[in-house]
Amino acid sequence: MASDAGRADGRKDIEAIQTLAEARGKILGEMRKVIVGQDRVIEELLTAILADGHCILVGVPGLAKTLMVSTLASVLDLSFKRIQFTPDLMPSDITGSDIIEEDPASHARSFKFIRGPVFANVVLADEINRTPPKTQAALLQAMQEKEVTAGGNTYPLDLPFFVLATQNPIELEGTYPLPEAQLDRFMFSIHVGYPTEAEEREIVETTTSAYQPDLTRVLTGEDIRGLQRLVRRVPVPGHVLDYAVRLARSTRPADGSPEFVRNWVSWGAGPRASQYLVLAAKTRAVLAGKYAPETDDVRAVAQPVLRHRIVTSFNAEADGVSPADIVERIVAEVK
């Protein structure tokens, strides 16, 4: 009977993977009603959400990063809150705070917790590097533990929960770079590039007209939680697991790592990178309708997983080498 139950669960997982592969196409179709191009960025966002990970979106102003996140939340039927990070933002502005409330009948006073904008399924931390580290750290417990502590009490967050943060790479004056410990908690660093000429023409044409897209919800929050559990059940072949671990370990400047890594890298990716490589590869495989990841899936997610976890040395800066260049070379050389 146990084997029959196992076979039934296996059939359900296969059906769920097939359903998700169909839903992926529908999600992309709904997103294209609003967002022109940026298919890679949308795929990486969807991969991170189904793998239960957080993302940083890096791109210059005007590339529709905020619109992309809010549209995705709408298509997935998730509650959405946007926090504009500024130098004067306080931790309680994010998490919430206790206020004194007076009972109108008895006039007794008591503390009442007012929830902050972090209590949403999708939290857009806009320009996260514009606020001091004290306020940036207010997101740490929420990102890692999916809960918030205030006034000595702990409040669970609504699940699923994702932090999608944006950064502007061209304005660095008056900013506070995220500490490495907090950067490591983001599963992906997604680079948003300029559109092509044809895409930009379409953007201008649609946004300067009376066009109003009608979005259809494809998944729900409960669907996403079920799919997150499905991703965890996807088996990983041993050689794929070994390859992911080798990739992450190759970023560390130690004996046995490539010479260019020892020359260009001060600190490499930690074990969390290996975990995210495997989780992202499994999610990418499931989204494509496959039942197990391959090494190609690991290679495809190597850049967004690894590039923000590599601290380059002075030699790399002198040679004009970026973390993305190092990841690209590691992927090319590690067999």
Summary tags:
2 domains; Helicase, Ruva Protein, domain 3; Rossmann fold; single chain; two-stranded antiparallel sheet; alpha/beta; globular; five-stranded parallel beta sheet
Characterization of the model:
The chain has helices spanning 2-32, 39-50, 65-75, 91-95, 133-136, 140-145, 180-183, 197-207, 221-233, 238-249, 259-264, 271-287, 295-306, 314-319, 323-333; strands at 55-58, 80-84, 96-102, 109-115, 122-126, 147-150, 153-156, 162-167, 188-191, 265-267, 311-312. It has two domains: 15-209 and 218-233, P-loop containing nucleotide triphosphate hydrolases (Rossmann fold); 237-335, Helicase, Ruva Protein, domain 3 (Orthogonal Bundle), CATH 1.10.8. The strands form four sheets. It has a five-stranded parallel β-sheet with strand order 2-5-8-1-9. Strands 3-4 form a two-stranded antiparallel ribbon. Strands 6-7 form a two-stranded antiparallel ribbon. The protein is globular and about 75 Å long. Helices cover 48% and strands 15% of the residues. The chain is α/β, with parallel strands linked by helices. It has 15 helices and eleven strands.
